[in-house]
């Protein structure tokens, strides 16, 4: 396994379960010191304990600016300046747009879009000052091609993609890269929870996989592999890119 020449301090939001946990595990295996930030501190502490080493847990609600500021300060105090930021925290509730309301819009945007703004705004100045940084934002193929029942989520993820490209341009000569990994339908606790709440769960899974060339759900480890690549020093000439890990659901030209 390829590793970084030196350990880097990595923060993974939403890192206590699903894709985030797989990313935290992979970054730690690559030799980095990892902070697992999550809304569930108990789950984050368990994940940090399971990974071991210098991995730490951070209580962070990315929808709360004060909580993000406090969480970032904890990471810097315990591990040092954050050099790798992975924004994985996310949330959605499947429903037709016409049945949604502004409370849902606000929650989806606060978590999936503004959460990315908050953490990036907190770590980017030091990355620029130190001349090194890797930002990897978890998007979604919903943000590339749209997705029925996920109108606001898809819009928020499209915003993440455009925001990441802009950060990539602004920081391109400062040693900082910014890229997006877009999972397709992936077997995670969040997805299982969303599906379980649907009246016809089997049909929901079938619909999710029908457009996937491989005809299956993705695995968190498969997404983590792409994130780990962007996070490495050797990927320093790659920035502003959007990579789908979706079994062929989206094939960009």
UniProtKB/TrEMBL annotation:
One of its GO terms (biological process) is monocarboxylic acid metabolic process. Its EC number is 1.1.1.100. It comes from the Bacteria. SUPFAM superfamilies: NAD(P)-binding Rossmann-fold domains. Gene3D superfamilies: NAD(P)-binding Rossmann-like Domain. Keywords: Oxidoreductase. PROSITE patterns: ADH_SHORT. InterPro entries: NAD(P)-bd_dom_sf, Sc_DH/Rdtase_CS, SDR, SDR_fam. One of its GO terms (molecular function) is 3-oxoacyl-[acyl-carrier-protein] reductase (NADPH) activity. Belongs to the short-chain dehydrogenases/reductases (SDR) family. This is 3-oxoacyl-[acyl-carrier-protein] reductase FabG. The lineage of its organism: Bacteria, Bacillati, Actinomycetota, Thermoleophilia, Solirubrobacterales. The gene is fabG_3.
């Amino acid at each position: 396994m390829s590793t970084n020449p030196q350990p880097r301090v990595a923060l993974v939001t939403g890192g206590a379960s699903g894709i985030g946990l797989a990313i935290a595990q992979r970054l730690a295996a690559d030799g980095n010191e990892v902070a697992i930030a999550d809304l569930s501190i108990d789950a984050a502490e368990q994940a940090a304990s399971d990974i071991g080493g210098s991995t730490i847990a951070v209580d962070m609600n990315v929808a709360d600016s004060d909580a993000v500021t406090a969480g970032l300060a904890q990471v810097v105090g315990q591990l040092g300046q954050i050099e790798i930021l992975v924004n994985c925290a996310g949330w959605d509730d499947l429903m037709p747009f016409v049945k949604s309301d502004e409370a849902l819009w606000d929650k989806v945007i606060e978590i999936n879009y503004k959460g990315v703004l908050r953490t990036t705004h907190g770590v980017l100045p030091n990355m620029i000052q130190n001349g090194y940084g890797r930002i990897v934002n978890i998007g979604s193929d919903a943000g590339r091609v749209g997705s029925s029942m996920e109108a606001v989520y898809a819009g928020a993820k499209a915003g993440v993609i455009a925001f990441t490209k802009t950060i990539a341009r602004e920081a391109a000569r400062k040693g900082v890269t910014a890229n997006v990994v877009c999972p397709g339908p992936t077997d995670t606790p969040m997805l299982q929870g969303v599906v379980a709440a649907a009246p016809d769960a089997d049909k929901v899974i079938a619909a999710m996989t029908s457009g996937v060339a491989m005809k299956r759900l993705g695995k968190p480890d498969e997404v983590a592999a792409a994130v780990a690549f962007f996070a490495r020093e050797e990927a320093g000439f790659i920035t502003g890119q959007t990579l789908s890990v979706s079994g062929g659901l989206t094939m960009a030209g």
